[in-house]
Amino acid sequence: MKLADLAVLLVEPSPIQTRIIVARLQALGIVRVQTARSGSEALAVLDGQDLHLVMSAMYLPDMNGDALARAVNTLERRFRPAFVLLSSETRAPQLEPLRQAGAAAIVRKPFAAGELRATLADVLDHLEPGQLHLADREAEEVRVLLVDDSAPVRRLLRQLLAGMGIEQISEAPGGIEARALVEAQFFDLVITDLHMPGLDGVGLTRHIRTDSAQRSLPVIMVTSEADAARLAEARAAGVSEICCKPFEARRLKGYIERLLG
Hints:
This protein has 261 residues and is of the alpha/beta class. Helix content is 41%, strand content 18%.
């Protein structure tokens, strides 16, 4: 798939901003662009249509961007559109719900043409990550455990892994449930969040490294945590790699290929 193949829904209440963003998308060769001014209008457009990407402002007349992102990521269809936030919002507490809602990217307004192109290139990687290239096994043989208390994030990761050819995917909504699964089954890879109730990602990793029968099990942490000390604690616990939410699909795929060799 190329940029020109993308079918995009732009959700923006400002007519001026809508014209500017549509023009920038068209300058990149993207001509299949529909527009909506509210979350409810956007969901009506998505009903019955298969689009590749939803790009939305943060503050809409009837809901915030995180609510729309959650609605998009719970659509009952095999492949859900990627969600990208376009906003001048920079406050971490306001953006955190977007990260937990499964946003593929957050782009700050005003943005340069190069930044928009790079974001859309990453969206293409989310939509078509390509088959995993592993030396001694097929992607279909890889057993992955996804651990995140956000159902939209698990859906996003599951769709991405399926696009890589991974079919054996188990899910846990928290560290406690994941610990039980690790004790009951063998996995090739764990992808976990950091912040979860009960048992967080650091605690789960420590259990895997010290108390489980799978102490060499690779663990990738996908988190919105930005505190260096907290991330260092995760690495000290035995986390193999860390991806920041929203994460680059190509980076996550590269980590998986390196860790599973």
